[in-house]
Amino acid sequence: MNVSAGPTQKMNLFQSVTSALDNTLAGDPTAVIFGEDVAFGGVFRCTVGLRDKYGEFSCVLSIVVPRGPVQAKGLLLSCIADQNPCIFFEPKILYRAAVEQVPTEAYQIPLSQAEVLQEGSDLTLVAWGTQVHVLKEVAAMAQEKLGVSCELIDLRTILPWDTETVCKSVVKTGRLLISHEAPVTGGFAAEISSTVQEECFLNLEAPISRVCGYDTPFPHIFEPFYIPDKWKCFEAVKRMINY
């Protein structure tokens, strides 16, 4: 197209950017704008008026953390096929440590659908990524040393997360332990705890336990002390059972 053809309007550079975004949103229903303060016009006002013109709808953001190779491939393909943006976390420690027989053909694992890896009746264990393997050991220790039957759930998608599966399990067991590597303050375990407290309060036999990372920076050499290992989680299990 000849840029001199058709109607014109005097614009500075940021106004021309706004015009380009406007044209895109008008002509492509799948187009999305995201960035710092874009809903309020952006830092440099390049998106002024676009929210009012095209609506306040914001897409669903999915956050996925696989526990192993089979899950990683299926979940990643689901993220790629999903029309909404997805954040796919890759547990670095599992890059070469986790080895499974993975189908070479394409397959998908549903997003926002937790998986019950082990059924139990006394306590619900919830984790994602690397911590699933830690809690699997904890479940075996609890059965062997305490005679406690643990239900183990891999959340897989932490946003939007499968509230139904977790709450159904807690109603059955009456106890919930959540473990993740991130710091306890502001960690996603707090969101799960809050929801379960609201939905299953009368079914709880003990306070919900969060076994997570510490609220402090740490050097690499101290990583073994920072990570919530099976012993920290097992101690939490004992406290909950004896509550």
TrEMBL record:
<dbReference type="GO" id="GO:0007584">
    <property type="term" value="P:response to nutrient"/>
</dbReference>
<keyword id="KW-0560">Oxidoreductase</keyword>
<dbReference type="GO" id="GO:0016491">
    <property type="term" value="F:oxidoreductase activity"/>
</dbReference>
<feature type="domain" description="Transketolase C-terminal">
    <location>
        <begin position="113"/>
        <end position="231"/>
    </location>
</feature>
<dbReference type="InterPro" id="IPR029061">
    <property type="entry name" value="THDP-binding"/>
</dbReference>
<dbReference type="InterPro" id="IPR009014">
    <property type="entry name" value="Transketo_C/PFOR_II"/>
</dbReference>
<dbReference type="Pfam" id="PF02780">
    <property type="entry name" value="Transketolase_C"/>
</dbReference>
<dbReference type="GO" id="GO:0009083">
    <property type="term" value="P:branched-chain amino acid catabolic process"/>
</dbReference>
<protein>
    <submittedName>
        <fullName>Branched chain keto acid dehydrogenase E1 subunit beta</fullName>
    </submittedName>
</protein>
<dbReference type="InterPro" id="IPR033248">
    <property type="entry name" value="Transketolase_C"/>
</dbReference>
